[in-house]
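Observation: inputs received (chain + S-adenosyl-L-homocysteine).
Thought: call the complex predictor directly.
Action: predict_structure
Action Input:
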Amino acid sequence: MRKDSHRHQGLRTQLVQELISKGIQDEDVLSAINTIPRHFFLDEAFAEWAYTDQAFQIGSGQTISQPFTVAKQSELLEVKKTDKILEIGTGSGYQACVLAFLGCKLYTIERQEELFHKTSALLNEMQFHQIRTLFGDGYLGSERFAPFDKIIITAGATSVPQVLFDQLKIGGIMVIPVGDGKTQKMLRIKKISNTSYIEEDHGKYAFVPFVKGTNNLSTVNLG
Ligand code: SAH
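Observation:
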């Protein structure tokens, strides 16, 4: 486990100020960002920049989202302590920790097996026991643990998957970036009934793609 220090704490406080200046208001989300050591989730080589408002490579061709994006998606979810939340795209596990800090029960799915193992080990070490990591295709959600109060997708989708909508409780919220090209609109969807929802657009973002299927360690890629 890497060390957290007063210097890191100071950098986090500065990051929180930056997020406030960019429009983040939720006190609990800001407190989570002020507390969770983001440098634990990055490769050692990038640790120096962990508290700048940037996304970084985390291996397997994936990224840890920019702190502003993590804060925005968390704020839009309106997390309550009683919530059961599904995250699609575990990645580094940072977003999962921010949500778990808010007191919910969190299920998170990752399709890259190598990343799944690495992040599961880290979350275990950090003792975030209310996070359950799952290996699989997020397009299928989790039949086993559905329905969810909230669903957050941290990869860029081309549309709202029906299966995920079906796994959301009535009255529930889904936060999902949707777009055709390199950028997506951050949509907040409130489920009104099994066939209707209200949609809000919360601005433009750029995510790695939401890809169907899984990438298993045993897969041999011929080249
Ligand atoms: N929430 C992450 C962001 C990771 S980037 C963090 O805080 O670090 C998006 C992640 O979504 C990647 O790790 C990618 O592998 C994963 N992903 C993409 N398509 C997926 C799918 N169908 N099912 C599960 N995970 C998926």
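Thought: report the result.
Final Answer: Residues 6-205 form a domain with the Rossmann fold fold (CATH 3.40.50.150). The first strand starts at residue 56 and ends at 59.
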